[in-house]
Automatic annotation (TrEMBL):
Its cofactor is Mg(2+). It comes from the Bacteria. The active site is at D10 (nucleophile), K52 (schiff-base intermediate with substrate). One of its GO terms (biological process) is DNA repair. One of its GO terms (molecular function) is phosphoglycolate phosphatase activity. This is Phosphonoacetaldehyde hydrolase. Binds 1 Mg(2+) ion per subunit. The keyword Transmembrane does not apply.
Length: 269
């Protein structure tokens, strides 16, 4: 049928961990543990969506971080430095990821509604496999379990912004066309991943990394503050090429209805 039959979902900031705090805070902690080096939470958020080794590499190239690193060590960050920070990151992330495994408000009901329409639920993540082995069962115990998942280090060709994790979902789920898939993510590399895979790409402007607030902080914000943060996040996601940007996954069914209308008219991503 010429309609959406699979959605490929990111994890942190998309389906679990409102605000995407599990990975960002751990980057701050890993830099501190490995090199007694401080980075800010805001800096840690900038490359979000990449694989974690690549995320650390990108952090080292941020002008402000590079300047502090050069002042401290007299040289740019190198691969051995990244390995050391990654080695610190992994046990910290494995230990903490279950604390951020609760499904975001509306996710469980939305997944049920999508499945009632015959839509398969795939997923992929910038997390390594060892982290996903902890996160997946923890989320399942709280009501969210996709039909398939793949981690950023499961495929030899790499992770985002390449298309490979999204395409692995297509293969594993037996989807007939990439044009019948929707990739949903809260980060720019995740949006690009979907585009590179030939899919419809949908950004989430409130629940994820770009908005950058906890659920409790979000609930206490003024309408003006929410609008400012939402606008910033939406602009970044649209700039990455998102076909649609909504607030949270609970808004996805209406988007899929519109995509189905467009597919019926012969449109493609």
């Amino acid at each position: 049928m010429n309609r959406i039959n699979a959605v490929i979902l990111d994890w942190a900031g998309t389906t679990v961990d409102f605000g995407s705090f599990a990975p960002t805070q751990i980057f701050v902690d890993a830099f501190r543990q490995a090199f007694d080096m401080e980075i800010t939470l805001e800096e840690a958020r900038v490359p979000m969506g990449l694989g974690k080794w690549q995320h650390i590499e990108a952090l080292g190239k941020l002008p402000a971080v590079n300047a502090r690193w050069q002042a401290r060590f007299g040289r740019a960050m190198n691969a051995a430095d990244i390995d050391a920070i990654y080695a610190a990151f992994m046990p910290l992330q494995i230990a903490k990821v279950v604390d951020f495994s609760a499904p975001i408000v509306g996710v469980v009901d939305t997944i049920a509604a999508l499945r009632a329409e015959g839509i398969k639920i795939g997923s992929c993540s910038g997390y390594p496999h060892l982290v996903m082995e902890k996160l997946v069962p923890a989320a399942a115990g709280q009501g969210y379990a996709p039909d398939y998942w793949v981690a950023t280090d499961d495929l030899a060709v790499g992770g985002r912004p390449g298309p490979w994790m999204a395409l692995q979902n297509v293969i594993a789920l037996g989807i007939d066309s990439v044009a019948h898939c929707v990739k949903v993510d809260d980060s720019a590399p995740g949006i690009t991943e979907g585009l590179n895979a030939g899919m419809w790409s949908v950004g989430l402007a409130v629940s994820g990394n770009e908005f950058g607030a906890t659920w409790e902080e979000y609930q206490q914000m003024s309408a003006e503050d929410i609008a400012i943060r939402r606008k910033h996040a939406a602009e970044k996601l649209y700039a990455a090429g998102a076909h649609y940007v909504v607030e949270m996954l609970a808004d996805l069914p209406d988007v899929i209805a519109d995509i189905n209308r467009r597919l019926a008219q012969g449109e493609r991503p």
